Every structure is written in C-alpha cells, then in structure tokens.
Predict the 3D structure of the following.
Amino acid sequence: MASKPKNKMSIEERAKQFMPFAALRGLPDALAKKEKILVPKIELSPEMEEELDRQMHLLAKGQMATVVYFQNGEYIKITGLVARIDETSRLLQIVNTKICFDDILQVEIECRRSSL
C-alpha cells in the first residue's frame, strides 16, 4: 500500500532551511565598532587651507563632488550632488548629509564628461 504524498513545502519555506543562522545577533556590528580606530582631527597647514578655500569657491549647487570630512573621531568620504552651500551657517550639504565647513579636509569637484 502506497502512502499518500505529504503536502509539499513552499519554495519560501524550503529556502529558509538554507539561510545562514545568526546565533549572536548584533555581533558583526559590535565587532565593527570595536575595530574602529579613532583618529585626531588633522590641523590644516596654510597651504592646505588655501587649496581647500579655492576648491570651496569653485563648488556650485548641482555639481558632483567628493568631500572628506571629520566626524566623531573618524574621516568619512562622501560623493554626491551638492544640494546647498550656506556661507552664513558655514554648512555644505551633499545630498542629505550636512557638513560643517570646519570639519572638511578635502574637496574634489567631479568633472563631467561631455558625450560626443
């Protein structure tokens, strides 16, 4: 006597069997935080300040730029469209990220390539 076939497991249920199991939830994030090396803020030389000032004056809203800035003991590099330059508040906004002028280490304006 042949037994009746059991209800087939859905593809989603079968896929769950092969998903990685995280026994210690949050461990990768905790390790990444532990690995972070905090660095002191770099004091700009007069030449570096002059070059940064020159680059900042060339920036315009809508341009693509890469900015390296200091935040919470580390340097962060962001590339995106310049959304706002507020000289009164001394803030530069790249997409949704607001950066204080005093925290900026380096600015590179991305050159747009013309299509031929």
In short: The beta strands are 64-71, 74-86, 91-94, 97-100, 104-109. The chain is about 25% helix and 30% strand. Residues 38 and 115 are 43 Å apart (CA to CA).
